[in-house]
Fold:
Amino acid sequence: MQQVVFILKKELQDFFISPIAYIVMAVFLLVTGWLFFSAFFIFDQADMRNFFNLLPMTFAFVVPAITMRLFAEELSTGSYETLLTLPVTFRDIILGKFLAGVAMVAALLVPTLFYPIFIGFMGELDWGPVIGGYVGALFMGAAFTGVGLFASALTRNQIIAFITGAVICFALTTIERMLFFVPGALLKIVSHLGASLHFQNIARGIVDSRDLIYFISVAFLGLYAAHLVMQEKK
Amino acid sequence: MIQVEDLTKFYNDFCAVDRISLEIPKGEIMGLLGPNGAGKTTTLRMLTGYFKPTSGRIRIKDHDVDEQPVAVKGLIGYLPESAPLYPGMMVYDYLGYIADIRGLRGDAKAGRLRDLVERCGLHEIMHKTIGELSKGLKQRVGLAHAMMSDPEILILDEPTSGLDPNQIVEIRDIIRAIGQEKTVILSTHILSEAEATCDRIVIINKGRIVADDSTARLKSNAGATRQIGLSLQNADEADIRATLGALDVVAEVSTRPGADNDVMDITLACRHGSDPRAAIYAAVKQTDWILLTFVQQARDLESIFRELTKES
Structure:
């Protein structure tokens, strides 16, 4: 377990000394800030629904950008070999990298706390949905990190890792708008696969275990798939 | 210390390593030699547990590599080919991270880091980014990485490739010093290097062991033939072939024109067994040739290597 912490620490250190961290953060804040505030004054309501409505879509692109280098870079520089010949297990490596990804997502969300604080000064803000929204964002971020980690383990090319991860996350967020194309028999199952739906439930302030289990399952599946891919590379 | 039994590795249909068996005792510096693509790196990767063998067993100090990979990795310090380290990290941070993972804490960690900085000459580069370092400096950081936990077994894949002659000598000295008490396995395709550092040499070609002996013995008696080099003035080729080729001890005569006019350089491959020099000298004395050079060519590793690994 200690090894997980060391790997986590190293990944975070690596992330925050690379320019990617700041580029991704800047783009994320710019996009969410602009989309949020451009509509905020028109609706003239003291809530963050607009922000959280857009979050699944922005996360679908931002999270894979964070996770794309986690395995792909190691594979392309060959440092994967030095890592695997240290006294660590696959589980240590995957968990360390996963937790680092989640911590980065959390770091990404911290500056956006400015919005609710700002809104709180402007009007009566209902804090329930806001807290729910952030909890949901963390869980969704963790799920997408799992997916992104899997995509990153597939290839040594970071761009391919990003695109693969983004496509899977994008499919998960938009699936419920595509139900139109799904045959009736599968409708019920497929409608539960969408990430937006589960996220919006939490963002409304209702923390239901089913929604949390959904995100945990997606994260777990991603990590398990990454584990299988790593084993295959031996 | 290390026992390898029938180690085999297939990449799809391609057999990279073919039933290799080895026993490496404690405190030996073993050189794994072979041409490019012979299976050196694959063998080392299986020893370190990075690759899974297709079949065969590796036991390292009572641990099976397949069953207890983490315990084995704790015993081994490994430097992969061309030292792939994190290019974005500072040397200081990187070595600190490795020390953490290797389980060094507090004073032990600080002391070990200081010791390695001293041994590998890293004083001036501790606060540089690894990606900025030259190949030789990076290799030294890699060596420090491999030696971090003071491992009982050190495995180095082409440790001196791409280094300048001074750095090669430095690294060799380091390896020799470590080899006093530790087991070292290094791979190389540079023969002089294996000759200079290793106690024992294993030559592999196309995934198979073609020679396995101590360096000294491999050089002295390893083959069948002994070679004598002659330079003769005043002799013509046909005569030489007729006279020397008639000797019992000579198996093959090859001639080529020497540097000056009239001079012939001759290489005689001799049959195994008794010393051929007396007979050759007697034969030359019968003629009116002028003998300029008479040398017994020691079989260097290079010729052994070429013989064993040439395409057949």
About this structure: Chain A has a mean pLDDT of 88. The CA atoms of residues 48 and 116 of chain A lie 7 Å apart. The interface with chain B takes residues 3, 6-7, 9-10, 13-14, 17-18, 77-82, 84-89, 234 of chain A (CB under 8 Å).
